[in-house]
Amino acid sequence: MALSVLSVASECFPLVKTGGLADVVGALPNALAPHDVAVRTLLPAYRQVMGKALDVERLLDLPDLFGADGRLLGARSPDGSDLLLVDAPHLYDRVGGPYLDATGQDWPDNAQRFAALSMVAARLGRGLLQGFRPDIVHAHDWQAGLAPAYLALFGGRRPATVQTVHNLAFQGQFPPRLLGELHLPSSAFVPESLEYYGQIGFLKAGLNYADRITTVSPTYAREIRTPEGGMGLDGLLNARGDRLIGIVNGIDMTIWDPANDPLLASNYTADRLDGRAPNKTALRARFGLDEDASPVFCMITRLSWQKGIDLLLDSAPYLVEAGGQLAILGAGDIQTEGAYARLAERHPGRVGCMFGYSEEIAHLLEAGSDAILIPSRFEPCGLTQLYGLRYGCVPVVSRVGGLADTVVDANDAACNAGVATGIQFFPVTTSALRDAVRRTLALHEDRDAWTRMQQNGMRSDLGWARRAGIYADLYRKLVEKGGMAT
Q: Which range of residues forms the domain containing residue 84?
């Protein structure tokens, strides 16, 4: 049975990206095509999206779209996937990022900007565009959370809906005075609907009204049903536990392919790991690190509390004293970036930092570093550890969320069985991280064991084929069970 899916998201690689959400949204359409699932991705027509989208054409007008008229555009992504773009210049044509202005502050009209995205998604779900009526509307994160709510609250025939939680910490909460402006009935402002501690909860709305809820790893699906991990939504998630499933993210094995990656100084395979050496030389030159026999640890991340960056700041002197080097690519607030800049100044040739994000540098770090550090306090899935596995950059991770699901710890049993792919640690503390660094350095001295870990990771099932099949099965079961609801 062929299926049609409208995927609704605020970002999508390679058009616009701030994190892993974009990689997942960008990869799924092509991964689902072999499963007879046709996906069209609905995105805001940000300035950076309009600069990259191909074959753009006007499809229809969208009158009175939260302040002014807009248009629905059809387009194609550079990777060939089908796009629908909400072209509303008063909402999206701006200098800055998808969510923040140039000073790093939230856009003051984010409620209207992403309610507009969800409203258009709901209208498309009901057949707004002639010749296109999706079987499934798949909403990603809070920015699309009102789409299932709009579809459910206003009655009539509708498609089945799926809400994916990529990170429960970001929920989209706005004042109740906006109910009327966002075309939400006042009767819905109750805890059983979309009210969340006195605010309109965009993500809560999606979790309440979607026919199915997915998140991006089985362990995270369990964690968010606990008071510690539920961010105030564990009660709702437990009440809807029979509708919740965790599906581990995959990666695009074509874009992330060390044998053919054009961003690397040298290409290599699991059988030719010596080809990694020129990449280490190149990254050391970029980060000002000494050229010697030291193992290089890297970190590619948002410099936030969630990612454990304070733990790494405390542990970095130990890492350097123990004989390692550290290269960091990330962005955070001024204070955090300043703390890491001072760390690099105190350890010249041993610690290097680049602030911001560069796809080229991220690829080089995965290809040239010996290990990637991911000391997250919570991690829905994580993608950098998957890229590390793919590139022979051994992950050193906290045992939480998707990190626990994707990295096989190098304990004695796993090493003896020859199946280890990285190092896990828990609890998520400075002392546990330092112990993980010590274990990593000791394993690095055992060249046979280290090479085996690298090769195990590079040969792991990291792509989307099997994961996309799980999504396809989920969609089909929804439709077969009468997902086209009234």
A: 3-250+465-480
Here the tokens at position 145 are 């959370």
Please give the Cα distance from 279 to 264 (Å, whole number): 7
pLDDT score for 77: 97
pLDDT tens-place string over residues 178-201: 999 999 999 999 999 999 999 999
Tens of pLDDT, residues 324-349: 999 999 999 899 999 999 999 999 99
pLDDT at position 387, please? Answer: 97
Task: State how many domains the chain has.
Answer: 2
Three-state DSSP class for 17? coil
pLDDT score of 484: 46
Residues 474 and 440 in one domain: no
Sheet holding 325-332, edge to edge: 351-355, 325-332, 296-303, 371-374, 394-398, 423-425
Q: Are residues 283 and 166 part of one domain?
A: no
**CATH number of domain containing 357:** 3.40.50.2000
- Contact partners, residue 262, CB within 8 Å, separation at least 6: none
> H or E stretch including 298?
strand 296-303
- Residue 406, CA atoms < 13 Å, CB-side half-sphere: 37
- Token pair recorded at residue 362: 């991220």
